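Box S2. Input/output pair 1.
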Amino acid sequence: MLFGQSVFQSVLERLKAEEEPAEDAEAPPAHRISGFATGLAFDVMEGVSAASQRVGQAYFDNLGAGPAAEEAPPPEPEPVMPDHLARIAPEEIAAELAIAAADTQQTLNEKRRAFAKANHPDGVAEPFRDNANRRMMIANLLIDEAMRRLPQS
């Protein structure tokens, strides 16, 4: 108890005393931020609000893009399918992998990684992902079968 009051009551009295002068003070204009001496750069542009002149263009003006940014970019050329993605027969993929009886688990894993680097669906254009996916599935099956046939050590 401080001066005949509980701590809670004294805190309430102090808060009330601090609020009273704040209510008497004149509220700053709503468009100003307390503590800033000037307006923000995007609010005033040569005395005219940028938003009232060209909605959404102020961003491009700051980038230096100007009105040219409003023009549509030229369409991207159609992607061309690489020749190797057209080969989806198991015999063709087996020839590419060149699996031999002398291959070890290590060489087969290296062949799998090299094939995946060149043929993974994530690395090709969207229209060709089905072919890349099919090639990867066949290659993985062929390599898994070759690993299964390896002598157990």
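Box S3. Input/output pair 2.
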Amino acid sequence: MLDDGSNAPDPGDISPPVRDLQDIPSVEVISRAAVMLLSAAAERLGLADEDPDTSPHRDLDEARRLITALAGLVTASAEYLGVHAAPLRDGLQSLQRAFREASAVPDAPGQGPGEKYTGPVI
């Protein structure tokens, strides 16, 4: 914003306009939360790095928590997500499979992260 008291935007300001939470549809809030959980879990699995096995960001305990939270959110809100539900479920299943592959001792079917909400992922 300009310092002259006008409401004209500063041409150098590239930040998006701020929206009140009350103006954001629930499906968008849920989808954003799911994408944040999905991204954070991928980071904790080391998937953002060239070699996940040697990633300094890999933390399977943290990944398990994030994947389980994502599974709960996606499962509980699937009926409200419409066209967003399938891609979020696919992303969740990809993370669950990546977790299984990354684990030195894989969980039994149905015992992996989030599987109490989604069922076994093979």
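Caption for Box S3: Residues 33 and 70 are 9 Å apart (CA to CA). The mean pLDDT is 90.
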